[in-house]
Hints:
Layout: E1 21-25, H1 29-41, E2 45-49, H2 52-61, E3 66-70, H3 78-86, E4 95-100, H4 105-114, E5 118-121, H5 126-180, E6 186-189, E7 192-199, E8 207-212, E9 218-226, H6 230-243, E10 255-258, E11 262-265, H7 268-281, E12 289-297, E13 302-308, E14 314-316, E15 322-324, E16 342-346, E17 352-356, H8 358-361, H9 372-383, H10 389-403, E18 414-420
Parallel strand pairs: 1-2, 1-3, 3-4, 4-5
Antiparallel strand pairs: 6-7, 7-18, 8-9, 9-12, 10-11, 12-13, 13-16, 14-15, 14-17, 17-18
Helix pairs in contact: 2-3, 9-10
Amino acid sequence: MVFHGNGADVRADLDFGAIRRVLVVDDSRLQRRILVGSLRKWGFEVVEADCGETAMELCRADPPDLVLSDWVMPGMSGLEFCQAFRRLEANDYAYFILLTAKSEKNEIAQGLDAGADDFLVKPLGADELRARISAGARILNMQRELSEKNRIIESALDELKIAHDAIDKDLMQARKIQESLVPELSRSFGKSRVSLLLKPCGHIGGDLVGMFAPSDNRLGFYSIDVSGHGITSAMMTARLGGYLSSTYFDQNVAMQRRFDRFYALLPPEEVAAMLNARLLADTGIDEYFTMVYATIDLRNGHLKMVQAGHPHPLLMRRDGQTEFLGEGGIPIGLLPGVSYQQVETYLQPGDRLLLYSDGFTECRLTNGEMLESEGLVRLVRDCGPDRGGPEFLDDLYWRLTQAMSPEHGLDDDLSAVFFEYEGN
């Protein structure tokens, strides 16, 4: 092997980046000596082997960053050595240059297929060798920088997964706490019955439904939808669940203790105004909520209701006629000093009332349109007059999921209160 150019003129302080350890494989001792001498002048740590078998043992023990291997050698050829070298498991990629007198295109293609990165045709020139090594160093630098970035990304993803799992676990626990706000999904009050549906679109949601009865003849029930989704909305529902507790009447803002003997239901418009004042008095809270809150005298079916920005309740008369109640109203927590209007009507035995969140009417259907109020009436009628209680709500929810667009899916919380009045 002959070097063209003066290798001694090349500076020994050149920075070849990722290439530190070089393996020279050649059956000619003289050619190895020439190559090793130049490489060491350029600052490399050099090991050498006189055949492919010995080179493989060195690579298994301590893989090099760069391999310079002759093509034609007794025993294992340079091509076979390259193939065996590429089969080794290694943490980092190594650059492989074949030294050959071959320059035919088909032979070069054969070497590339075997795993070689570059070729040097004999006789070698020192400047060309150094340039090819520099090119290899640039590739290895980029490859190792990419590997390091991938390692950092994988580490970050592992940390994110741990954090996600922790958050997911907390959210699952939060869902149990939120479900505890609705301890009963169905309850009978004499012949009448209230059934509840609560389907958050995520682990937790911003909808809340509930009922409470301070006496055998008086009943209150509500449907609430807090603005937004997720943790903040869920925290607000937890707070509202305390304000409208079905267990601790002394904490329920919709009730008032009378004569230290019993609790009475306050008028719905007073309850809405009180909640509005409380929410606006809390600094740092940007959320608001819509609500329908209703009370009924089970003895005569006298229904009193307040609507605060919530969808219009659907009244289903026993003769099959339907009508929407209410005039809209202002959501709670938006404006101070809002006056809420009470709506009154009478229910007859066999009448049913449905309170629902806008997750129903704003649900996207397969045709791309929203369900809207008319669509809700169709779904309700499809459920049939014979279905009642939780069975009715389950059927209503199932029919909605069958009609909704798979592309959008359930993108909002769903909740409903179904009241069946059967007289006293």
